[in-house]
Amino acid sequence: xxxxxxxxxxxxxxxxxxxxxxxxxxxxxxxxxxxxxxxxxxxxxxxxxxxxxxxxxxxxxxxxxxxxxxxxxxxxxxxxxxxxxxxxxxxxxxxxxxxxxxxxxxxxxxxxxxxxxxxxxxxxxxxxxxxxxxxxxxxxxxxxxxxxxxxxxxxxxxxxxxxxxxxxxxxxxxxxxxxxxxxxxxxxxxxxxxxxxxxxxxxxx
Amino acid sequence: xxxxxxxxxxxxxxxxxxxxxxxxxxxxxxxxxxxxxxxxxxxxxxxxxxxxxxxxxxxxxxxxxxxxxxxxxxxxxxxxxxxxxxxxxxxxxxxxxxxxxxxxxxxxxxxxxxxxxxxxxxxxxxxxxxxxxxxxxxxxxxxxxxxxxxxxxxxxxxxxxxxxxxxxxxxxxxxxxxxxxxxxxxxxxxxxxxxxxxxxxxxxxxxxxxxxxxxxxxxxxxxxxxxxxxxxxxxxxxxxxxxxxxxxxxxxxxxxxxxxxxxxxxxxxxxxxxxxxxxxxxxxxxxxxxxxxxxxxxxxxxxxxxxxxxxxxxxxxxxxxxxxxxxxxxxxxxxxxxxxxxxxxxxxxxxxxxxxxxxxxxxxxxxxxxxxxxxxxxxxxxxxxxxxxxxxxxxxxxxxxxxxxxxxxxxxxxxxxxxxxxxxxxxxxxxxxxxxxxxxxxxxxxxxxxxxxxxxxxxxxxxxxxxxxxxxxxxxxxxxxxxxxxxxxxxxxxxxxxxxxxxxxxxxxxxxxxxxxxxxxxxxxxxxxxxxxxxxxxxxxxxxxxxxxxxxxxxxxxxxxxxxxxxxxxxxxxxxxxxxxxxxxxxxxxxxxxxxxxxxxxxxxxxxxxxxxxxxxxxxxxxxxxxxx
Lengths: 205, 629
Fold this sequence. Notes:
Shape of chain B: globular
Cofactor (chain B): [Ni-4Fe-5S] cluster; [4Fe-4S] cluster
Strand content of chain A: 5-15%
Oligomer: heterodimer
Number of helices of chain B: 25
Enzyme class (chain B): oxidoreductase
Number of strands of chain A: 8
Structural class of chain A: alpha+beta
Function (chain B): CODH oxidizes carbon monoxide coupled, via CooF, to the reduction of a hydrogen cation by a hydrogenase (possibly CooH).
Low-confidence stretches of chain A: none
GO molecular function (chain B): 4 iron, 4 sulfur cluster binding; anaerobic carbon-monoxide dehydrogenase activity; hydroxylamine reductase activity; nickel cation binding; peroxidase activity
Distance between the termini of chain B: 60 Å
Strand content of chain B: 5-15%
Keywords (chain B): 4Fe-4S, Iron, Iron-sulfur, Metal-binding, Nickel, Oxidoreductase
Number of helices of chain A: 8
Largest sheet of chain A: 2 strands, antiparallel
Strand order of the largest sheet of chain B: 6-5-4-7-8-9
Shape of chain A: globular
């Protein structure tokens, strides 16, 4: 099973994934034309600010079974078997938002898309960049991410790396290098400062 | 919409000052957008930018360096994180130095035009200072008309912006030891403009690629600001408008008036606002205001233009940087006059929610939606009168039903120029030095710099100032930090009760506050002069003195320059907001550690003001021990 695995500790909130996603889902597929298209293309991945200025890139997990698919009354949501993607047929979407209610990650948003003729809003969810994947390319968000917070690959392999890290942290074996994520001292120092700034505002008021 | 209790909670998180909180609630209820709202909309902010590893300087890029040790570890040109961070810092610093120095140049131009008899409404006010600085410049003063001396001096100072002689006269004021150290490190400033232009050259692709060399030039550029452009702005303003002496006035948004025409003077340069002070005293205009239904004309300052007017005329100060939108949101401002620096581009948008008119006065800082009244020294007073008249004519448009002005302005004392402090000490720094040697005053810390909505408005300034005076450390302040202390009641002699026993006794005997308002941002140069005098009396360098600097809430490029000239001059400086350098461990190490070996001072970053006070106290103790006291 291939997936975009998220390592939130490596996300630095640059939102490049959002921009890349919006471009990928624009008609023109290039930045300079995409910004003047009508309707303007919007991202389907959301970098959310969380506590202490840390961020989380929230994205469709393409669940199987998928709660959104299960509740969709028009079967607009379907599974692309080759890529394991929960995809959407915009023509069938009636904008009832039941899928959004069922989504455990809260990432379904309704938008105008160039594929529909009228300006109604449809479930414009992450499509796992099916087209790119069929061309042998990885999803745009993972390609855009320069810090490795979004990594595309075999789920078990990606999870293995995180698991090893977790185990290492638990064991704290002397002399053993932790594989990932290794947070450099300077970045840890910066985050510590931002945490203090966030806390000061909360605690002193 | 928010309910009032929720709005109150938000306001308490945003600002420390009760008067500010009251108006923040009003902005929320009125639906007026402020910097705090815009900061929220900006979340999350790009980590590459915050770490300083984003380079957008040429079109091979934009480039960024992966901060966790993976690829890309170089920009297209091959620049590493160290180089990109250093270039970005030099870029920011030069922008700040340019802002201060350009301000200084304008003051000197007015001085020149006044000397030539071409300006309107200006005069040479402080002849004594004119003479003493002219003597520093080797200009003859005996038996000469003050105008002739001023003309020579203004030309000599203006010449130093692009001088061929490779030195700036006022830099000579630094103690010998400090100057020698600058020479040894190759950072002795050569001219005002040259260092900034050279910075721009050095950060061009394919020029400077050694981050250490780039940062050394950053230090030199900052020194050309602190001991050059900024100092010229201060001295030029003193000659023209008078050297500040202690004065009592009022601070916070409560200085706005319910029944007078309110004019807010916002920005940094005193040359036009000084004329507005004159215009507002014009009996005809006062009468006109009364005819329009007002009880008079009420001038209040904001940011550093406000500090300049407060220091010299006791004009009340409505607030610091984050107060600019709040002042308008009181619904009581007829005109906000802006010159330049720290003025939100959105200020006209805010003004559009009320009857307020924004009048811009500098060709350099036109703002869309503002009325532009071009200012020339030749017609300075006429322009000032036009602006006051426009404010009076706007008074009937005030919707009194939408006005809310906090009720209690806070009393303050300002005007502590270096000369005034020396005078308060009896003409020599000996009493201060004695107090420091005796330990009743452990040291002196300059708290300077801006507001930043990332920190609760004024919380950093006030908590740090209180914490330091409690520990018997005298605090001197400029800029938004000084205004914050005014609003919090720390600038009155009675505030000595909050100080430790040693400092309290010194303040009480001199009748001074434990926190001294030394002026605007360019007046950080006054702190340098004070430090130089003390060092000279002791025969040491500035880096040997038990001094510290802090910018708890800084935001601006000017603050990068100020912080760097403090450190380069030997003053350990603690920042409350991280500068954009954390993407380079090498630059971090250089600025936080290695610099100590070069200038006996370094930077530190500590947003918690209590912990910042610990750092400053420890550093003061280190210097005291080295001095054997």
